[in-house]
UniProtKB/TrEMBL annotation:
Its EC number is 1.11.1.10. One of its GO terms (molecular function) is chloride peroxidase activity. Belongs to the AB hydrolase superfamily. Bacterial non-heme haloperoxidase / perhydrolase family. This is Non-heme chloroperoxidase. Gene3D superfamilies: alpha/beta hydrolase.
Length: 278
């Protein structure tokens, strides 16, 4: 399997599909998943003539289960290691949830300074800040994230099943028809990764203030968010992000969940392709 080794010795797994001279699109997955969460989008963009790249974040999926470095700075640096290894330029970076935070930090710290980034997309993404603080009174209280940590430590397998079978895909809504395959695939990806990485990742996605990352991004940036997102509420994320971005475009989806890239690929893929082609 293809890996790149980072400067601090971490092996990062990646997929690199398509012609090497095709326009590159790189995908950044959410917590606690892997590059496999982008299956629909990888195949879709490959069929439309793009080179698609997706990696497993450190401690997730097939990447090394190291004990340290589970924060946005390392996530972004690891992504840059993949970009450098593959010699990618003119890249469109698409991130979902925690992967959206990774994209924001990456573009701000590495992508634009290196001149390698063309555009960015934040899908149901965590920036600018999920946690309630004195300067972010609309955020979620720390008790919510403490509950995540407690549930993960007590019974990670059951916690991951409950998240996938409930709020992640909106399967807890009246009239929803849960898909056993979707739930099992979420659980499979989560259980492939490291409990330590996932535990630390809760702090990374909830407590990292990315206000300045968003302010510093100059490339065209598309913000996509479901209006019924129960994991990353739209008022904590997309509505605030679009106010901070210099060159941002916001599109929201009535009734769609946090997992809309999996449940509604026909809608998401078309909008992503339009933005990438523009």
């Amino acid at each position: 399997m293809p890996f790149v080794t980072t400067s601090d010795g971490v092996d990062i797994f990646y997929k690199d599909w398509g012609p090497k001279d095709a326009p590159p699109v790189m995908f950044h997955h959410g917590w606690p998943l892997s590059a496999d969460d982008w299956d629909s989008q990888l195949l879709f963009f490959l069929q439309h003539g793009y080179r698609v790249v997706a990696h497993d974040r450190r401690g997730h999926g097939r990447s090394a289960q190291v004990w340290a470095g589970h924060d946005m700075d390392h996530y972004a640096a690891d992504a840059f290691a993949v970009v450098e290894e593959l010699g990618l330029t003119g890249v469109v970076h698409i991130g979902h949830s925690t992967g959206g935070g990774e994209v924001a930090r990456y573009v701000a710290k590495f992508g634009e300074p290196s001149g390698r980034t063309a555009k960015a997309v934040l899908v149901s993404a965590v920036p600018p800040l999920m946690l309630r603080t004195a300067s972010n009174p609309e955020g979620l209280p720390i008790e919510v994230f403490d509950g995540f940590r407690e549930a993960l430590q007590a019974n990670r397998a059951q916690f991951y099943h409950d998240v996938a079978a409930g709020p992640f895909y909106g399967y807890n809504r009246e009239g929803a028809t849960p898909s056993r395959g979707v739930i099992d695939n979420w659980w499979r990806q989560g259980m492939m990764g490291s409990a330590k990485a996932h535990y630390d990742g809760i702090k990374a996605f909830s407590e990292t203030d990315q206000t300045e990352d968003l302010r510093s991004i100059g490339v065209p940036t598309l913000v996509l968010h479901g209006e019924d997102d129960q994991i990353v509420p739209i008022h904590d994320a997309a509505y605030k992000s679009i106010e901070l971005l210099e060159n941002g475009t916001l599109k929201t989806y009535q009734g769609l969940s946090h997992g809309m890239l999996t449940l509604n690929p026909d809608v998401l893929n078309a909008d992503l392709l339009d933005f990438v082609r523009a």
